[in-house]
Known about the structure:
Structural class: alpha+beta
Oligomer: single chain
Number of helices: 9
Strand content: 15-25%
Amino acid sequence: MKTDASAPLTASLVRKLEARDDLSDEERAIIEQMFTEVRLIKAGDDIVRDGDRPRHSTLVVSGVAARYKVLQEGERQITALHLAGDFVDLHSFMLKEMDHGVTAISQCRIATVPHETLSALSVSQPHLTRLFWLLTLLDGAMHREWLVAMGRRSAVGQLAHLICELKRRLSVVGTGDQDSFTMPVTQVDLSDILGLSSVHVNRVLQELRGDNLIAWKGVNVSILDWEGLQRVAEFDDRYLHIVKEPR
């Protein structure tokens, strides 16, 4: 995924927040200074595991991570994708114990903020606290849309909706072009996201390609007909709340 190596670690997070409210200079400075550790996670490695009790929350600086659960017989269900600017476990500050895992789909650069820092900010920075609360609410809103897509949309509509969502989310943080983006997920990953077999996923991809809605080659996704793709997906981005207003 495209990133500017010279940009601050928090650039995508700041863009994500400023798409929804104004940040003061003090708040931007606090965000830049609050992360204490930066490291690389290899593709396929867990960032946080089911049952962990993290003492920090983790931000994706670059790469793609996935929230997932594994059933007793080994089947994996991916319940969210996390992109640059997303916290993968901000909720662990309050819930304490993780009830699912988060894995790196691609190589991820991550940064962590101690829960003690978040606790202090909740007292001294009420506006910033509300914005971090908003991030967890956005995660919930996206989760509801994924449930609706899996339960009620056709397989083609479900994948079309996912592509529309990824395009909008990436455009907010400035890591996608107008009509294309990089998405390093395999068909196995898509199978675990959509709850479909790999064969069915391949068939759905072929249908979207055959209708000249998208081109997906390797990790590169191009949207050939944005309006048509939105129609197939019944996509309405209101649930992403990309509206700048006082919070």
